[in-house]
Amino acid sequence: MPSLSFRAYFVLVGLFAIWVGAWGFLLPAQVDRALPWTVPPLHARFIAAFYLGGALAMAPSAFARRLADVRIAIALAVLWTGLLLLVSLLHLDAFDFAKPQVWFWMAAYAVYPLWGAWLYRRALRDDPPVHRAPDPALVAIAVAALAFGAALLLAPGPMVRAWPWAISPLLAHIYAGPFLAFGASALLLAREARPEARRIVLASLLAFTLLALLASLLHLRLFHFDAPAAWLWFAAFMATAAIVAIRLAQGRRGTAHA
User: Is 63 exposed, middle or buried (0-12, 13-18, 19+ CB in 10 A)?
Assistant: First the structure.
């Protein structure tokens, strides 16, 4: 059973994710109350989709009864927060250190990856994964997300030009972290044999894809449908949502029949 240190981690990371997600999705014009910088409404809602998806991984993890249930959720949080710390350090000139949000952001993203890495090591030791033959559909999602995230991180210039709406190099780097984290988590999901160990992060990934689609539909006029990137954007998110929903339903049936 996860100890108090695990539950405290999920609560604190989850509350931070809900704070950013709620401002970004519901009041995007005021997202600078939660983020260290201001972004346009579509970006605010897309960032919020990431954070609300992450919150859906943290909330049930705080009440889980087995370490196996939360191991991949910890990996998701460690990679996400660690990569966002790296991106923040690469763009220190974009931060106004007179704002308290900036200090909270930096402190949170310095502590969360280290704390999470320590918890992940404990979870691996005390309840290691049970492997299966890789799920091809989840591997495909993982490869796509990892490639997309790596391109955002390593080649922001071309990605800015190819993006289906207006985006800055800073935001390209910010988006890289969650995409890489979800991609790596999808690889872990593809190898994990136990449905209960996959359920939380599958639900988190489904929530992110659906919220990203909703955010995109709310700002549909900003998409450039004269280029293939916009069509690919919607097709990729819809396909991912369908695959993840099917895998989540299959896992629930498998648990029910066990």
Answer: exposed
Query: Alpha-carbon distance 195 to 252, whole Å?
Result: 7
What is the distance between the alpha carbons of residues 123 and 72, in angstroms, rounded to a whole number? 10
* Secondary-structure percent of the chain, ordered helix, strand, coil, rounded to 5: 80, 0, 20
Question: For 179-232, what is each residue's pLDDT tens digit?
Answer: 999 999 999 999 999 999 999 999 999 999 999 999 999 999 999 898 899 999
Residue 198 near residue 251 (C-beta atoms within 8 A): yes
User: Rg of the chain over CA atoms, in angstroms?
Assistant: 18
Residue owning tokens 């929530």: 207
| Segment 105-126 mean pLDDT | 95
Residue 76 near residue 45, CB atoms below 8 Å: no
Q: Is 258 helix (H, G, I), strand (E, B) or coil?
A: coil
**Encoded amino acid at 54, one letter:** G
